[in-house]
Description:
Blueprint (H helix, E strand, L loop, with lengths): L10 H21 L6 H6 L6 H11 L3 H14 L5 H24 L4
Main location: membrane
Pfam family, one: SSF
Protein name: Na+/galactose cotransporter
Amino acid sequence: MNQDVLLNAGWIDYVFVLIYFVFVIGIGWLLKSKAKTGEDFFLSGRSIPSWITSLAFLSANLGALEVLGMAANGAEYGWMTTHFYWIGAVPAMLFLGLYMMPFYYVSRVR
């Protein structure tokens, strides 16, 4: 099996990458006046409701790596692949919810 993988990008690929970077930098340039401090940037001025924070936490556990990786492993190895999720993600979420959230609430991080 050949391990040399080359990206044969054409001009349209580079145009899309350029458009993406211009878009992201443009949004940052337009919104730079709203974030005056590091707290404003990282914590949105502590104005995000807890339900949005919870959705962000759950979406971090359902990224492309998890969805596609679990599907590929499931196709190759079958149902026993789910043990990765049960011995990894579920205990981590329980630990964060039961032990770390009280520290977050006391320090007013949200």
